[in-house]
Amino acid sequence: MAFGVELPVFAAFDPDFCIPKRQEPGDSEAVHLAELRALRMEARDGAAVAHRVRKVLMAHADRAVTRREAEALFDIAETAREGASEDFAALFAVAVANHLLSAGAGAAEASIFARSFWLDATVLAAAQSGVAAPSLFAQVVTAALTEERVSACEGWVARGASEATLQAVTRAADPARSWVAERLGRRGAALSGAEALLVAALKPCCDLTPASAVAKAA
Q: Which domain of life is it from (predicted)?
């Protein structure tokens, strides 16, 4: 799949985007998930929803992406409109990878997987353009471990992740790997563009390609 490299920012997002106020733990997750389901219905009708999906996810900016949220993102990725959208593909790949890699993380590593860091516009632009996709997520983890904001890391995209970091990423992915692979192969059909980007980006440390699925050409 071809993703243009000329975009300096994640184009679908509002230029005045800001992270919503932090929600209290007592807030109902049902409302949050209902918003994602409503956006899936809009996507089925042909609407572009990537920037609104990001806003919904950012309502819990200090947490990793949950299994139920990842399920909702897969549902949106299966729609014709957003499954082929480069903007949604980048958001989907990074958000699902965040869930996959955080599943095996301990409490001490929780801050590394805060979605406010992973869904940073700079990270999404790199994922969308395909720049350094094979180790993109390992590089994000490396930047988080060194407490550097990705946008402040000079040359962060070109800086390769260490072998030790890739191995750590692989171990962290183990608890959720089978679920993601099963979800990718559930339809027994070709992968959407969003799903193909997720598979390509994680391939060096986590082969998710389902035997029954073949990625669509761009």
A: Bacteria
